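pinging the channel bc i need a second pair of eyes. not urgent but kinda urgent?? the chain im working w is below, pasted from the shared doc
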Amino acid sequence: MSDDVSLTGPAFPPEEFRQRRRNLLAAMAERELPVLVVTAPEDIYYLTGYNNQGHFAFTALVVAADGEPVLVARAMEAPTAAAQVPDCAFDGYGDDADPAAVLSSTIKQAGGPQEAVGYQGHSMTFPIAVWNRVRDSVPAQAWIDCTDLLVGLRAVHSDRELACIEAAARLSDLGMQAALDAVGAGVPEAEVAAAGLHAMIRSGSDYPGFVPLVRTMDRVDQEHLAWSTRRLRDTDTVFLELSAAVARYHAPLTRTVAVAGPPRSPAAAEIALVGHAAIRAAIRPGRTAEDIYRAWRDTVDADLGAPNDRHHCGYLIGIGFPPSWVGGNAVLGLRPGNTTVLRPGMTFYIQSWVIKQQVGDHVVCDTVLVTEDGCELLTTTSRGEAP
């Protein structure tokens, strides 16, 4: 991919969004689905380019086999919708109105309410109160959970999407290096996080879907903590995880660093790095997600001489809105039981965690691209391998 990508302005021309919607309509036709209600912010963005932080108020995109898509959102979002998605209709609701009533009316006007209506059952942004009122108001013969439909369509990235992910990876590396440079005895965790975030945003990053995570390794298993005001000590080892975002596309990475001196757990670091290499070696088109997990787990368990009970070794990465950089809670993970086949153009956040073992704790993670014959590392900050 080209190293030259604009970090400002629209990342995609209108035709790319129209093609994505045509692909969706074709997939809906295969399922004999006349209407689909899309509520995940990542999927609404993927189909239209609608990009703001207003999803805390109920927002939906109604896609029908006949007619233009309709964006249902808070009425005050109309100017944003007009500027960003002029080829979609807008149906706004006031703060004193019931969004369920507006959405129900929009679905009925879209046609086919007596037939099947698709929805995203795993969406975090379809409140149960709204869902219940819509389901009671629309006389569909069946409501069909179509969460997997858009996850499948978004899994393989176009060249333009990959350019955004690669640009995000470069900014993530800048942020990680700034965070690593800020680590020192007496420095608050918050200052380390601020250094990473500042470097990314100053260099062109959007706001990320997830803030930087900075914590000492004695709390490494307390996942998804952001940071504290605790000052680092020279005996501490620090967990650093962050991602930049370009046009809402993310490329996260994680590093483990000692505040002073060499790694506190060199054996754990070596095993984690060997596991990281095993994931990269296993990734290639045609393999399944569980194949990759098995390759990592077998390698790490053999080196440890004991089971390393980590539930996955990575997941698909791309579009993300707060509170996540993975695209909602329908995560396509490299985990046991996932038979999804890897294809060129997918990007994964690969993770090699070795924690709470006798050898100590170490974590190393990166964003990679599935290529025609293997994978390519997109984040490149030093992982501390021997030269």
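so The chain has two domains: 14-154, 159-377. and DSSP finds ten helices and 15 strands in the chain. — does that match what u expected or am i reading it wrong
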